[in-house]
Amino acid sequence: MEEATAAYQAAVTDDAVRYLRARGIDQQTARTFRLGVVADPLPGHERFRGFLAIPYLDRTGQPLSMRFRCLAEHDHRAHGHGKYMSITGEPARVYNVRAIHEAGDEIHVAEGEFDAQVLTLAAHLPAVAIPGANGWQSHHRRMLAGFSRVWVWGDPDDAGADFTARVCRALRSAKGVRLRRGDVTDTYLAGGAAALHALITKEAA
Q1: How many of the other CB atoms lie within 10 Å of CB of 93?
Q2: What is the predicted pLDDT for the residue at 79?
Q3: What are the φ and ψ backbone dihedral angles of 67, each rounded to 5 degrees?
Q4: C-alpha torsion sign, points 156, 161, 163, 169
Q5: CA 200 from centre of chain
Q6: Hey, which of 11, 94, 117, 196 would disulfide with 39, CB 3.0 to 4.6 Å?
Q7: Nearest Cα to 151, choosing from 134, 171, 133, 174?
Q8: What does each C-alpha distance from 126 to 7, 76, 84, 111, 142 come to in angstroms?
Q9: Per-residue pLDDT tens for 113-151?
Q10: Average pLDDT score over residue span 92-108
Q11: For 38-125, where are the E strands, in sequence order?
């Protein structure tokens, strides 16, 4: 997995840079999370050619797994793939586990990898991601049980509300953050890190 991560990280295209910037991800953040582009697929990755590569890193920055995001703005299903795709047979993982080891008494949980990146580096709020509104699993509770507060950033839709409810039912320390301007990334792009911090302040009041 290290070979793939290093190769894809070295192949970032201008299109990928523009895509990431539009989502609040600058080059430093992309380097920190080792984002890349599948320009020359390694064996088994051929169907991800041209996709953005999102490695799942351990606490030391070494890749454990990888997810892929199509960069084309089209009907993904009509082209025979999903917007996000995973390696066949890979178990579901928590994204940005380093945050669990580096956070203080509080941690943040988002639905998507990009939202976790924005919270962690742009807003300085250590965050993990549980990809997909249905991604929360019972064993995730053990990973987050030691925190005095777990802030949950579910997307402002029915699936996001269900995600927030699941986490809050599993953890007494969990509290949902009510998003009003779209998801975490939308909120950050509209008002910067201050807008994210203001939402927490309002929930904590």
Answers
A1: 18
A2: 67
A3: -120, 165
A4: positive
A5: 19
A6: 11
A7: 174
A8: 27, 31, 23, 14, 17
A9: 999 999 999 999 999 999 876 788 888 999 999 999 999
A10: 95
A11: 52-57, 63-69, 84-86, 106-110
